[in-house]
Amino acid sequence: xxxxxxxxxxxxxxxxxxxxxxxxxxxxxxxxxxxxxxxxxxxxxxxxxxxxxxxxxxxxxxxxxxxxxxxxxxxxxxxxxxxxxxxxxxxxxxxxxxxxxxxxxxxxxxxxxxxxxxxxxxxxxxxxxxxxxxxxxxxxxxxxxxxxxxxxxxxxxxxxxxxxxxxxxxxxxxxxxxxxxxxxxxxxxxxxxxxxxxxxxxxxxxxxxxxxxxxxxxxxxxxxxxxxxxxxxxxxxxxxxxxxxxxxxxxxx
Length: 253
What we know:
This protein has 253 residues and is α/β, with parallel strands linked by helices. The protein is 30% helix and 24% strand.
């Protein structure tokens, strides 16, 4: 009898605790198979011993909330041309591609051809990046914090996020929408994973170049706080986040 000893993520203690119930269920279904004619032969055993007591899925965290929230805003605003820079293909980009075309820029290659996703390989901190007034809608979700840290094959540049921010501004047309998110909390670099930004720093970066249409954030527990006021006291303590996710919808002035 072949048996996959551990389902991914199952600890030894959980495995030993729940194995007797699994074997009991196995004997039961084998007995039922004999009575029903056994249209489905049995292959190797593949114990999944935690799923019955888990919740039905994961509906929390930075990526879940930002991807769903921003995809909904793109749908509602229905731009002429939407471009994404560096967001998750199997999250936000897939959400948007389910209802419209989306052009994706990333420093890494994408080998798959996917309906509604038009991929172009770009390095947003390359001095040769020349796009100007290219689109009326642009997203950059959980990506700007990586620019210049080398994690994804980009060159090391301490100011990489500033160069990328400038190129994002130039790519977007006047009056266009920018959706961006980054980690928020006490400002720091955790090399070479990411930067974490203070909310005050981000607002200074936004300055007068954009109007803030809305601000939402995911707190340290992974819960979404949607469309919150940017009050000074909360800005100063980064909305009580150590590693949260700030999500901005902006309009270019």
